Amino acid sequence: MARIQACKKPMILVDGLSARFGIKAELNALVTMTGFPTLTTPYGKSIIKEDLVNFHDVHLGSVGEVAHQTWIAERDLVLHFCPLNSDANTFGFTTMPDPNSTITFDYNSVRMSAADEKTANGRVIPIKSALSKLLERLRTTKIPTPDRYPEKCLSLKSMLKHLPKPAESSIFDQYSFWLVVFSFLRLRDVVMTETGTAAYGGQSLILPEDTVLINSCIWLSIGYML
């Protein structure tokens, strides 16, 4: 709690195992309550409500804008939830935050820093219980106002807004397609993106609430995304 109160440049990073561990509701409450800038990994996309003002899409690591990378590197506190640190899920291991400024929450453990053991004195710390207690404490705690996410890093909604209107004879291009096709999605849809183009394009989908996105995040082999 002291680190949350003292931070000036925080970030919440949500990975896909969070949904498997049953903490989606708690995470959305945390993101809303703190106002901390929040990103997900490719595997974590669809866990956080994408209409929250402090949600900033997928952490793109080394393939993101320079402003995105610089902002990430400046974080003095990262709350990292349920990481799956595969090559495919971390853009070649470039989205993994500095362990010295990271508190990592896993299924039965909380790691406070790079040198910290996974559990306190060998005790199991269930993540759902830990998050519930954290939320309870935060309700009576003064939470610092975080610095803002860079305006240079356009949100998916901003990118969609600035898309030029296509001519009748225009061909589909990948950049436009993934931004526009979201309009076909409905509440509680399940979206499956095959390995390859769709896996990366799907990260640019603007998802309705309670949509579930399934992609390949452990290893990449076309035709075997499940």
Automatic annotation (TrEMBL):
Keywords: Magnesium, Metal-binding, Pyruvate, Thiamine pyrophosphate
Cofactor(s), names only, from the UniProt record: thiamine diphosphate
Transmembrane segments: none
Annotated GO biological process: aromatic amino acid family catabolic process to alcohol via Ehrlich pathway
MF-aspect GO terms: magnesium ion binding; pyruvate decarboxylase activity; thiamine pyrophosphate binding
All residue ranges annotated as the Thiamine pyrophosphate enzyme central domain in the record: 2-116
Coiled coil region boundaries: none
Keyword field contains Hydrolase: no
GO cellular component: cytosol; nucleus
Similarity remark: Belongs to the TPP enzyme family.
UniProt-recorded name of the protein: Pyruvate decarboxylase
Organism of derivation: Colletotrichum liriopes
Upper taxonomic lineage: Eukaryota, Fungi, Dikarya, Ascomycota, Pezizomycotina
